[in-house]
Known about the structure:
- This protein has 152 residues and is an alpha+beta fold.
- It has one domain.
- It contains 4 helices and 9 strands, in the order ββαββαβαββαββ.
- It has helices at residues 21-29, 52-58, 78-91, 121-130; strands at 4-6, 14-16, 31-34, 43-44, 62-66, 97-104, 110-117, 135-140, 146-149.
- A 7-stranded antiparallel sheet has the order 4-3-6-7-5-8-9, with helices on both faces. A two-stranded antiparallel ribbon has the order 1-2.
- It is globular, with a radius of gyration of 15 Å.
Amino acid sequence: MPPWQPCARGCRHFRPTRMDEALLAQYRASTYLVCVDRVRWPAIVIEQALPATLQALVGTQPWAFITAWNPGSIRRADEPNQAAQRKLLGELPRNTLSLPAIGIGPDGWYEPSLFVVGPEFAALDALATAFRQNAYLRGRGADHASLYVVRP
């Protein structure tokens, strides 16, 4: 079965299928790096506390590692990905701290991302859904990073 299905209207847009264990394993094995400055790129590890550098920025607030790239985990060209990422950045609530980030899969797949601090989980879930992401990382304060599946 292909990783997509034609949308209900039968047009050329694609609707991703459910995530399987292999795709979940890819998410879990990926490296999630946040650009704090030109030299420091701390890594977020699923089911572990944030690195101290990021904890200092987050305090007790909710945070997320999120992207608009490759909706439904379907690779697409850089131009529409970049446009979607700019739109995501523009839709973040005011007073949101946003740092550039990148997710790198074990097979070389990569997605420029954002590390955002401040929006509540409901707002982050809505953004992930609007940008058709399968999952994203999130947490609150120094709690462990969790992989939140948007599209089971």
